Amino acid sequence: MSIIDAHCYLGDGVYMKRNSGDLLDEMDSHGVSHAVVNSTDQYSAVYNREGNDEIIRAVSEHPDRLTGFAVVNPWYGQKGADELRRCIESGLRGLSLDTRRQGCFFTDTIVRRLIQHAAELEIPVYCHTGTPIHALPLGLMELALDFPKVSFIMGSGGWADGWYDAGTAAKTAPNIFIETSYCAIPLIANAIRLIGVERILFGSDAPGSSLETELLKIRLLDLDARGREMILGDNAARLIGIRI
Question: Given a cut of 80, is residue 244 above it in pLDDT?
Answer without folding.
Answer: no
